[in-house]
Amino acid sequence: MIHRALAACAFALIVMSVPSQAADIQNIDLGKNATVWFAEDHTVPIIAFNISMPAGSAYDPAGKSGLASFAASMMDEGAGDLSSKAFHEAIENRAIGFSARAERDHLVISITTLKENAPEAMRLLQMALMKPRFEADALARVKTQIIQSLQQDQVEPPRVAGRAFASAFFGNHPYAQSSIGTIKSVSSITAADLRAFARRHWVTNGIKVAVAGDITKPELTKLLADTFRPVPNTAPPALPNIGRLGKPGVHVMPLPVPQPTAVFGLPGIMRDDPDFIPGYVANYILGGGGFSSRLTNEVRVKRGLTYGVSTSLTAYSKASVMMGSVATRANAIRQTVQVVRDTMSTFAKEGPTQQELNDAKTYLTGSFPMAFASNRGTASQLGTFQRQNLDIGYVARRNSLIQAVTIADVQRVAKRLYDPARLTVVIAGTPSDGRPAPQVPRPPVPPSEAPKPPASVPATAKPPATPEKPVPGPVTAPQDTQKP
Predict the structure, then answer these.
(1) Is the pTM of this model over 0.70?
(2) Which residue has the higher pLDDT, 433 or 356?
(3) pLDDT beyond 80 at 315
(4) How far apart are the first and last CA of the chain?
(5) Taking residues 360-368, what's their average pLDDT?
(6) Is residue 481 pLDDT above 80, yes or no?
(7) Is the torsion defined by CA of 91, 92, 98, 101 positive or negative?
(8) Other C-beta atoms lying within 10 Å of the C-beta of residue 23
């Protein structure tokens, strides 16, 4: 009992202390078209960097889908006078965490290092950006790994559904392409393609840098200037605007599997829209809140149709999507989709209860400080906000924005968002004749295999040096525990 009380006190102290530290964020001038945020923390001798560049999968050229992701996977495969092996040894010998992933709009580089090794870590980054080698043996190895992953994807319902959903939902826009590519497109990628992409997109024009840890502002200013000022500052091409989003209806991708996956979605709310925060709260109540969400109650608890159903509200630079997924047995998938539709319709008509709103606010505000529990977490969270083009003061006022959301706000946004007639649904699997819904609650039917997140295209073919957030798939982005 005493231990439990002490643990509770310790947790409370962390929660209370983190917001004030996280709110003390400083700007650093790195020149025009660059954004740098810094949270100074000398608790431990560790520095974390989260660096974003306009080099995401949306910039993949026609016929070369997967190029941005391939290039990100090659970033630590040799640079300058260091071969792939030598580069890895330089990182490992100093215990530097170094990883890169291509999201939809950005290349995101994560570096975590002891303070004493920070200059060397940034020197290696500069080499990787300016003098990548793209050696033949490393290129062939990484390409083989990506293709093997793509081959496996062809038989996994969540991956098939996620890709097909992106294609249907985004139409002719680059967001419709697979982030990791296709077997055909990846097979065609050459070292020349990688070099051309790096020259055009691994630039500081539009760079966003978030840093947290054991370094002073003057020290960091010099370190970043030494690292990035030699890097080209050319402007990357602008992404095209999107026309109509969605392809309403149910689209079936036949697969001989016992448990199909359905990925469903609607046009979302852009991040700079005043309704985004109410929409974020609404999403938590409908399907983003795990066991406390309406969809979980209706689909899992009441009817036992699945082990899990979830939704997310994700905004990219050119579009936003409210997206969800659910997996169930073949003879229940159509019924499950109908329950999802009905639940959305009811929520759009009635809005939330006061208890649902209170619970959502409690969780969304109470869990937020934990994103800042480490230097790495702080840098990652700040980087997320930078990519969403939020201002530096957002961290301090974020929770108050959520607390200000009213029932009327959620009702308004629910009507705006959750129109079942506009719902795009992709089922990967072969539905069979369904059975009527049970009249009494029963335990959920165990899945034939553990379902994967719907919109994840497989993680980067080459695992990162340190555990990183999953690589976002064709639809969702940031798939992490960070809160908007």
Answers:
(1) yes
(2) 356
(3) yes
(4) 36
(5) 97
(6) no
(7) positive
(8) 15
pLDDT of residue 470: 28
Q: 């996620």: which residue's tokens?
A: 162
Give pLDDT tens digits for 71-112.
Answer: 999 999 999 999 999 999 999 999 999 999 999 999 999 999
Whole-number Å distance between alpha carbons of 6 and 25: 30
Please name every residue paired with 286 in a beta bridge, in sequence order, or none if there are none: none
CA angle 305, 327, 171 (to 5 degrees): 135
d(CA 129, CA 107): 12
At residue 416, φ and ψ (nearest 5 deg) are: -70, -40
State the pLDDT at residue 32: 85
Q: Is the pLDDT of residue 477 over 90?
A: no
Supply the Cα-derived Rg of the chain in whole angstroms: 23
Residue in the structure block whose two tokens are 């939704």:
311
In sequence order, the 6+-apart residues with CB closer than 8 A to the CB of 315 are 268, 269, 270, 271, 276, 388
Task: Measure the CA–CA gap between 29 and 148, rounded to whole angstroms.
Answer: 44
Neighbours of 354 (CB within 10 A): 8
Q: Is 47 left (phi over 0), alpha (psi -120 to 50) or beta?
A: beta
Domains located in the chain, CATH noted: 13-228 (3.30.830.10), 249-428 (3.30.830.10)
The span from the CA of 384 to the CA of 316, in Å, is: 11
Local confidence band at 120 (pLDDT 50, 70, 90 cut-offs): very high
User: In whole angstroms, what is the distance from residue 476 CA to residue 313 CA?
Assistant: 8
